[in-house]
Amino acid sequence: MTVEIDRNSGFCKGVIRAIDGAERLLAEGGVLYSLGAIVHNEAELARLRKKGLITVESLDVAPASLLIRAHGEPPETYRLAREKGFEVVDFTCPVVLNIQKSIRESWQQGRPDGQIVIFGKIGHAEVLGLVGQVDGKATVVENLQQLQDAIASGAIDLARRVDIFSQTTKSPVEYEELCAYLSGRMASDGLLTIHNTICRQVASRHRELSDFARRHDVIVFVAGRESSNGKVLSELCKSENPRTYNIGSASDLDPSWFRAEDSVGVCGATSTPKWLLEEVAVAIKNLH
Ligand code: SF4
Fold first, then answer.
1. Tens digit of each residue's pLDDT (9 = 90 or more) over 239-255
2. What is the CATH number of domain 2-9+200-285?
């Protein structure tokens, strides 16, 4: 059996920046909270917890340094944190910051008729941060069906200006389908502006991962249960290679998935650390 780790898998730049920043601050000492999980990966969270990073889900704790993760936050969070006396250390990914700015500008330019539509996971931290830029006045759709429902119910009015954005980690193919549908249904040309906001690193990973999944007999996809990007990428692998198995760590491996002559590909999400992929690859080699 041969085992190859996908060289393009592992943390994206935004996550690396936030984790490096957290480790630097932890080395300096003092209390450091992360508002929400800094990365959607249980194993990496456990490693950072050992170094002292405390994950909190609300600001109902004694004020200290407060890390804003790569997903970003709505303006209200910054206001509340400062009001409560937290020292905010902002590691929002620069790509996300640009999208937040673009949503605010589009909203301002489109007033009073403009509508903001976001293709993303309802309730996802990044999406909440985006929606918060326009005081919640955006329509979030998770798929084409929800877009069609929003049009049918009048939540999206096709006779008025629409600016559509995507969460950074959504599928580029699905976003294209959604935009094509919307474009075909708008009452007149010029009313729709499509913002190309899927992260470039994610978009290229889609292409590379399709090739990688086809090249191997078996794919082991490593990601945390909460990883939105993990769900999208593992489905992509499954569509290219039916022998795709999703795991959270090496202990989830099942020897019956593999044959002695198989070539096995190990890959993961933008939230999967490289060290975990290496651990899984070693465990697979040790199975036989
Ligand atoms: S996926 Fe892209 S946009 Fe999102 S945090 Fe990573 S680098 Fe930034």
1. 999 999 999 999 999 99
2. 3.40.1010.20
